[in-house]
Amino acid sequence: MATPQDRQVSQAELLAEAAEVIPLRQASLWGDAWRRLLKNKLAVFGLATVILLCSIALFAPLIAPYGEAEVVHFQLALETPSWYFPMGIDQNGRDMFSRMVYGARVSLLVGVVAQIIVLGIGVPVGAIAGFYSGRVDNALMRVVDVFYAIPQLLLVLLLVNMLGPGMKNIFIAIGVTGWVTMARLVRGVMLANREQEYIKASRVAGGGSGYIIIRHMLPNSLTPIVVALTFGIPQAIFIEASLSFVGVGIRPPQPSWGQMVGTGQQYIQSVQHMMIFPCLAIALTMLAFTFLGDGLRDALDVKMNE
Amino acid sequence: MVNFIIRRILWFIPTILAVAMVTFIVMNLTPGSPFQPEGANNLRQDVIEQIERHYGLDKPLPVRFVIYLGKAVRGDFGESYARRSQRVNDILRRTVPVSLHLGAMALAAATIGGLALGILAAVNQNGPLDYISASFAILFYSVPSFVLGIMLLIFFAIWMPEWTGWRFFRVGGWESPRDWLLPTIALGAGPFAQLARYTRSSMIDVIRSDYVRTARAKGLAEQKVIVKHVLRNALIPVITLIGPLFAALGTGSFFVEKVFRVPGVGQFFVTSMSTKDHPMIMAVVLLYGTFLAVMNLVVDIAYGIIDPRIRLSGGGE
Questions:
Q1: Does the distance separating the beta carbons of A279 and B147 come in below 8 Å?
Q2: Which residue in A274, B49, B226, B299 has the most C-beta neighbors within 10 A?
Q3: Is B7 in CB contact (< 8 Å) with chain A?
Q4: φ and ψ at residue B51, rounded to 5 degrees
Q5: CB within 8 A of A12, min separation 6: which ones?
Q6: What CA–CA distance (Å, rounded) separates B15 from B35?
Q7: At what angle are helices B242-259 and B278-306 packed, to 10 degrees?
Q8: pLDDT higher than 70, residue B46
Q9: Cβ atoms of residues A135 and A74 within 8 Å
Q10: First to last CA, chain B
Q11: SS3 B79
Q12: Around Cβ A283, how many Cβ atoms within 10 Å?
C-alpha cells in the first residue's frame, strides 16, 4: 500500500520526468508541420517520390547504362522493351531507359531553376508593394492584371518563340512569366501582416523598413511561399513538358520527357513504348508534387487564395 | 451596379491593348525575319523593299502597331506569312468553329461531371465515394492534358482493337462524332477535376455554417437542406472558377488538338509558332486574350449581380 508520503514522492518524480520530457519536444513551427506531414500517407508518398526523382536526377550518369544521346545500335531502332533494354529503344537506336533517367534531370532542373527565378523577382517586388502599398502597389497590381489576362502557357510559348528553344530560354520564359503569382502572394501576406502589433512594436523600437521587411515580415510569409514553391515546381515541369511535346522546348538530342512523347507519337501505330514510359514519368512526377504540396499546405495550415 | 459594370468594361479596353502590345513587342523582337541576317538571301535590295512594303514592314514599329490595331478592330488580321495567299481571317473562319465545338463539349462535360461529383463527394464527406472522387480529381488535376490524351489514344485506339477487335476509336481525326469523344475527355478532365475539388470544398464550408445547422435543427429533410440551403450558396463561389477554366480549356486545346490531329485553331497556332507566322500568332493571341477578358467580364458582372458584397467592395480583387 502506498502511503501519502510515497504518493508525494512519486508525484515529484513524475513532475521531474515531465520536466525532462517537455523541453525535448520543442514546439517549433517546422517541427510540428513535419510531424503532421509524416502522418499524411499521400504526402509521404509524394515526398518519397520526389526524393527518389531527385536522386535519379543527381546520380543520372551512375544509373543510366548509356549516355543521354548515345546510339546503342541503329539496327535496334524501335525495339520494344526487353531484359537488356527495360524501356526499349527509340527511333534512333538509343536506350530509352538512359534517356528517361537523364530526362528526370532536365525536368527537375527546369522546375527548380525556374522557381529560383520566380522567387528572385516575385518576393522582392511583392514585399515592396505590400509593405509600402500606395503608388508602388497600384503600379504592380496593374502589371499583374495584364499578366493575368494571358494564360501563362501562352505567354511562355510566345517568349520561347522569341528566345528560341533550349533549356536556358525555358528557365527565363517560365521565370519571367511566373513571378506575378508569387509577387501577388507575398504582397497579400505583407498587407495582412503590416498592421500587426509586432510590426508596430519593431517600429517603435527603432527598426527601419528594410530591417522590418527582412527580419519580421519575410519570415512570417515563409509558409505560403514554401507551399507556392511546391506547387510552382510541377507547374514549371508541366510547361516544359508541354513545350517540348510540341517541339519548341528542350532541343534534341538532349532528352526531355515531353519531347520523347512528341517524337513517339510519330510511331504510335507500330510501337507505343516510346510514349508510355515518359507519359507515366510525367504523370507520376506531377502527382507526387501535388500530393506533397497538398500535404504541406495542410501541415503548415496555409490558406491559399486560389 | 451600373457603375460597377461601367468600371469593369472600361478596364477591359486597356487590358486588351496591353495584351496586344506585349504580343506585338515580343513577336517583333524575334530574330528570324526572312531578310536577317544581312545577305541571308540573294534577293535584290529593291525586291526586298518591295516585299517589305507589301506586308507593311517598312514602317517603324509603333506605326505598324497602330495600323495593325486599326485593321484588327475592323476584323482584318492580314495575310498569313506561312500559308501564302490565305488570309488569316479565312484560316480562323475554318478552324475556330472546330475549336469552339471541342471546347464547348469539354466544358459541358466538365461542368456537369465536376458539379455532380463535387456535390456527391461533399454530401458523403469522408465516405468511400468521397475518396474515390478525390483520387480521380487529383489524378486528372495534376496530369497534363496531352499526357492523358496520349494514354487514352494508346489504350482505346491502339490496344483495344488489338485485344478485342473492337475498332470503335481511331487514332485522331475529326470526321465523325466518335472522333469527338477522346479529345473531349482529354481536354475536359483538368477543368472537371478542378470543378469537383472546388465544389466539394465550397459545399463543405457551407454545410458547416450556422444557418445549415438551423435548417437541420428545425427538422428539414436532408435533401431539402442540401438543395435549398447548401447548393444555392455553395455554387456562388464556383462561378469565379469559370475564368481560369476557360484559360485551361484554351491552352489545353493547343496540345489536345495536336495529339488527336483535330483541325482546330490550337494546332494551327502551334505550327505558326515554329514557322514564325506573325499575323497568325498575333490574331490567335488577341482572339484568346479578348475571349478570356470577355469571359472574366461576364463572370465579374454575374458575380456582382448574384453576390452584392462584391460590387459594394468595389471589384473582384
A1: yes
A2: A274
A3: no
A4: -65, -45
A5: none
A6: 33
A7: 150
A8: yes
A9: no
A10: 17
A11: strand
A12: 18
Q: Which residues of A touch B27 (CB under 8 A)?
A: 158, 161-162
Cell numbers for B111: 461542368
Q: Report how far residue B249's alpha carbon sits from residue B246's, in angstroms, rounded to the nearest whole number.
A: 5
The grid coordinates listed for A166 are 533550349
The answer to whether B30 contacts A141, with C-beta atoms less than 8 Å apart, is no
How many residues are present in chain A?
306
State which residues of chain A have pLDDT below 70.
1-27, 302-306
d(CA A173, CA B269): 18
Q: Which residues of A touch B293 (CB under 8 A)?
A: 149
B35 in A contact zone (CB under 8 Å): no
**0.95 surpassed by complex ipTM:** no
Cα separation, B56 vs B50, whole angstroms = 10
From chain A, pick out residues whose CB is under 8 angstroms from the CB of B22.
Answer: 146, 150, 155
Which helix (H) or strand (E) is B216 found in, with range? helix B210-217
Question: DSSP for B26-42?
Answer: HHHT-S--TT-STTSS-
Beta carbons within 8 Å of A64's beta carbon, 6+ residues apart: A95, A97, A98, A101, A102
For B128-149, the pLDDT digits (tens) are 888 888 888 888 888 888 999 9
pLDDT, tens digit (0-9, with 9 covering 90-100), for A212-237: 888 888 887 888 888 888 889 999 99
- Alpha-carbon distance of A65 to A55, in angstroms, equals 16
Report how far residue B282's alpha carbon sits from residue B289's, in angstroms, rounded to the nearest whole number.
10
